[in-house]
């Protein structure tokens, strides 16, 4: 019997496509615009071309072996240790293969965290079989540093074999100093304490790793991928030197260190970053005279990408981030629950975070192939670019005297501040879109449930003897959320949100596109858009504006309609009491005439939406 496809050769009947063919089609669409318009740039200035050929002669990056799933880590950060234990047991019974114990004062605590006491540790671990193959990761800070000792004591006091417990202890004073911007001790004073703890834990029989090189510090502060990678290398090498200097052979010392990176919704960049770190660390090991071994890399989905508004979109962001980190060979992944920016996540949010990973592993089988990105031209190129640039910045930190000295000199902080400034500008102009916050807002979203809990209060840690610029964590949506908070306050106080009347001119074909744009822009700042039918009569337009109860107005139509109707419409709105009149569209040669008629601002794609919204609130508050 003949198959249907035997008579349908499909692709074989088409001529082979070439880059030249593609370029001709692109030039036709560009219509004389330069090809460079299609070339993107990262925040490190790395070039991203629109098309890449298949990479040849490349091998998979050494990392997670095929058919070996990453550890599904779940945050345990409830301040009540008994409640935290109940969460841990539920997580382990329902798919989690590891627990990330987040202690108060840790770099990733974000306002909550466990009490760093022996009693709390014992309560959290009740009925948890630490020697049954689950992964345990400690996220601690200087104020909660004793938690690592309490965990070790708990293991020994319960008769467990330390070597059978898979515990990453998370010692990382460099991360804490970078976040706080100060340290009570010099690096020379810090080293003996850290290496003493590491050697003590190793002597008890724990296999580690013990010290964490945490790139989240840079990512959370708004830094770039190159800066994050270089910081991890600098911290990793600092700990490697310290441990070796304490008398531990280099071959053993490297086994005592692991890395942590942030994974965000930029899929290709996240994949390239994780792949790059493996290559970079292998280069360091080679320079140390070692045969490279796979570095253990833990991943957290990014804090800075979380939004308080429309938090369910955070589920999508976390899925993409997990997908990217998993394909790039992360050994363990912790998904931040989608409501974490609002408060302590409830059981539903925790379940979604856990199942995000379980679905990708069990149903999508992401762990079945080692380094599936190998040979992909775009990702291979980006990986190589990240390696080269990160190595250069790492060398700068080495010339400065190492990670601690580089922080004292502001080397990382200055570069992170520049990246954040550029990022903030793109967020403000909505070039970097935050769905649900800066674009496609929902003013009628229901309140999201979170748990009520009192954070653990910790005593201050040491004196601020050695100060440098801090790199505290931020969330990219915060400026827009602040405006939404103002809108909520107005709704609570007066029963109504600030409003802008969309003064639509002409037919729906004329105004729909710009009215939709204007509605999204204003409501991203909590200013409710009042829609209208198309008007040609200025008097009817003015009457509709008065009936809307709005203080602001925005003319919306096409460039074809504006010359005929915009002047009269603006004058009518001004007479009707509009405090501020916008026009949806870029200023043209008619700008002077429009401003004379009453138009006081223009809103358009690429404009500073955040500044426009902040100015609108100032004008309404001055009324």
Explained architecture:
The structure is a single chain. This protein is α/β, with parallel strands linked by helices and 623 residues long. The chain is built from 21 helices and 17 strands. The protein has an 8-stranded parallel beta sheet. Strand 1 (40-41) and strand 2 form a beta hairpin. It is globular. It starts with 18 loop residues before the first helix and ends with a helix.
Q: Major sheet: size, sense and barrel closure?
A: 8 strands, parallel
Q: What is the CA-based Rg, rounded?
A: 28 Å
Count of beta strands: 17
Quickly count the helices. 21
Indicate the percent of residues in helices: 40-55%
Strand content: 5-15%
In the predicted model, the low-confidence regions spanning at least 5 consecutive residues are 1-5
Mean pLDDT: 94
Structural class: alpha/beta
Q: Order of strands side by side in the largest beta sheet? A: 6-5-4-3-11-10-9-8
Described by the principal axes of the CA atoms, the overall outline is globular
Distance between the termini: 82 Å
Descriptive terms for the model:
globular, 5-stranded parallel β-sheet, single chain, 623 residues, 8-stranded parallel β-sheet, 21 helices, alpha/beta
């Amino acid at each position: 019997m003949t198959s249907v496809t035997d008579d349908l050769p499909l692709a074989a009947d088409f001529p082979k496509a070439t880059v030249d063919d593609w370029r001709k089609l692109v030039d036709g669409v560009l219509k004389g615009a330069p090809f460079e318009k299609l070339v993107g740039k990262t925040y490190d200035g790395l070039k991203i071309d629109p098309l890449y050929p298949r990479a040849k002669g490349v091998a998979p990056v050494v990392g997670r072996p095929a058919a070996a799933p990453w550890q599904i880590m779940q945050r345990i950060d409830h301040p009540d240790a008994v409640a935290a234990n109940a969460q841990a047991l539920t997580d382990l019974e329902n798919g989690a293969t590891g627990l990330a114990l987040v202690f108060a004062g840790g770099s990733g605590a974000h306002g909550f965290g466990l009490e760093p006491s022996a009693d709390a540790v014992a309560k959290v671990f009740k009925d948890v079989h630490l020697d049954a193959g689950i992964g345990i990761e400690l996220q601690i800070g200087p104020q909660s540093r004793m938690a690592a000792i309490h965990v070790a004591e708990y293991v020994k006091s319960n008769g467990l074999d330390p070597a059978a417990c898979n515990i990453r202890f998370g010692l990382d004073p460099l991360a804490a100093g970078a976040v706080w911007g100060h340290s009570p001790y010099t690096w020379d004073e810090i080293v003996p304490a850290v290496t003493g703890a590491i050697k003590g834990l190793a002597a008890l029989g724990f296999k580690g790793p013990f010290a964490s090189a945490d790139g989240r510090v840079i990512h959370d502060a708004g830094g770039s991928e190159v800066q994050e990678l270089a910081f991890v290398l600098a911290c990793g090498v600092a700990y490697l030197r310290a441990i070796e200097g304490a008398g531990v052979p280099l071959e053993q010392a490297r086994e005592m260190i692991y890395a942590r990176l942030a994974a965000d919704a930029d899929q290709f960049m996240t994949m390239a970053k994780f792949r790059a770190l493996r290559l970079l660390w292998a280069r360091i090991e080679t320079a140390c005279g070692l045969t490279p071994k796979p570095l253990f890399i833990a991943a957290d989905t990014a804090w800075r990408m979380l939004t308080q508004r429309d938090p369910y979109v955070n589920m999508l962001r976390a899925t993409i981030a997990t997908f990217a980190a998993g394909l790039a060979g992360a050994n363990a992944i912790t998904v931040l629950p989608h409501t974490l920016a609002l408060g302590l996540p409830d059981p539903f949010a925790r379940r979604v975070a856990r199942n995000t990973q379980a679905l990708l592993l069990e149903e999508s089988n992401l762990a079945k192939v080692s380094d599936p990105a190998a040979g992909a031209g775009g990702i291979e190129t980006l990986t190589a670019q990240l390696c080269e640039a990160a190595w250069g910045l790492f060398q700068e930190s080495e010339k400065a005297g190492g990670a601690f000295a580089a922080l004292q000199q502001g080397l990382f902080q200055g570069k992170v501040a520049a990246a954040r400034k550029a990022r903030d500008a793109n967020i403000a102009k909505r070039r970097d879109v935050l769905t649900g916050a800066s674009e496609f807002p929902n003013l009628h979203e229901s309140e999201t449930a979170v748990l009520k809990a009192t954070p653990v209060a910790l005593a201050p840690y040491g004196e601020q003897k050695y100060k440098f610029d801090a790199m505290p964590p931020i969330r990219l949506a915060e400026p827009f959320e602040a405006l939404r908070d103002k809108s909520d306050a107005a709704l609570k106080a007066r029963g109504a949100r600030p409003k802008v009347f969309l003064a639509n001119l002409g037919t729906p074909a004329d105004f729909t596109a710009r009215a939709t744009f204007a509605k999204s822009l204003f409501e991203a700042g909590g200013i409710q858009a009042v829609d209208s039918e198309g008007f040609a009569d200025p008097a009817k337009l003015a009457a509709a504006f008065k009936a809307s109860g709005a203080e602001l107005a925005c003319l919306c139509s096409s460039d074809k309609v504006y010359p005929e109707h915009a002047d009269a419409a603006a004058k009518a709105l001004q007479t009707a009491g509009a405090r501020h009149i916008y026009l949806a569209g870029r200023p043209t040669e008619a700008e002077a005439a429009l401003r004379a008629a009453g138009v006081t601002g223009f809103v358009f794609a690429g404009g500073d939406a955040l500044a426009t919204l902040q100015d609108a609130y100032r004008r309404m508050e001055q009324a």
